[in-house]
């Protein structure tokens, strides 16, 4: 056993799952790992994780988001919990020596606790390197003053990623569900709900990574090599792509259906079973189905949902539409409902009557959906997505091209990566700061689903992952092991 690595996860499944997979990769290299989790996530860790003799779990009080007057008590308690764990551990001489802490940048406030015990820190980004590179580059290039018609190139990044006026437009600010801009347990990089910071401002992660000795990204060279190299040069420290950090079964079954419930612990309910979803997909031609799904925390506005429903009705394409509870509702701090419009309720928007209009052409799933299963099915031929990073990586690895509808934060740059750099998608509309209309969605769906060249590029990109977890990421993890072992001497 080489030593102990602490991995500190942020809030939400999109942070927890990559951190658990990262622990598994460390354990396979004979490092002992301790996953440090907010106590609210304890029920989301499968029992199989703790069965690994090289893996452990430490819980701390739940707190996230930026410091706010009068709201730091939980964070202080979390720091005390972590310090007590490290102090108790230091009294047990038989345990492997701690060699570093890999910290989700969302939890950057834990750095000081590890430094008290002389444990070096590596900052971990659960999203891709493109988003971080573009946020940094936009700041350095003073992108806030880009004029209409101008393309602001970022030295060191590919030309096709040059910033235009429309790239930097965001929908008017509003809090993400359940909290003020930039706050809450699911605070995204780049701000929340269109709120500050604006494109061209200092990225919110910059102070969170100060003092780190290296960076890790949930990506790989095949997807984002120029952006990893850029971050290495700009940050003047190693920036490794160690992902995509998806379940082991994802990489072992490149041509087989993935059963989500077998590999991801989830108690959320759905109106369809996995078997019913498979049966419906089996009845559709290869590559014919459009999969429509947004994140559990983000989505179109209450005004845009009827436009989407109308577009799916007008289109002739088979579709699966996943609608989360609370869709379209923006809640003020402290909760409170929204809606009050046709097709809405406390549960959020639902397209009443659409299922009877489209018949067997559409499958409308309310609640949880087996996304890995849907993306891995041969009938799925397109993905209307908010371009959250985990969803983006999952679809790329299965050769499914995108109709990109980013909502906030890193999703805008993930969409730009998909559309301009990888060329495996289109944007749903040119100006995403305005309300997206039915006609734009219909046009985008037909353009995406009918583009054979686009599907060919997506298939060729998928082929790079047919041999399993990316070789470049294995190499990066080995490089990390060598790097941290030298630091420990």
Automatic annotation (TrEMBL):
Pfam families: UDPGT (PF00201). Residues 173-188, 196-206 have a biased composition (Pro residues). Residues 333-342 have a biased composition (Gly residues). The keyword Ribonucleoprotein does not apply. Residues 164-207, 330-351 are annotated as: Disordered. One of its GO terms (molecular function) is UDP-glucosyltransferase activity. Keywords: Glycosyltransferase, Transferase. InterPro entries: UDP_glucos_trans. Belongs to the UDP-glycosyltransferase family. This is Glycosyltransferase.
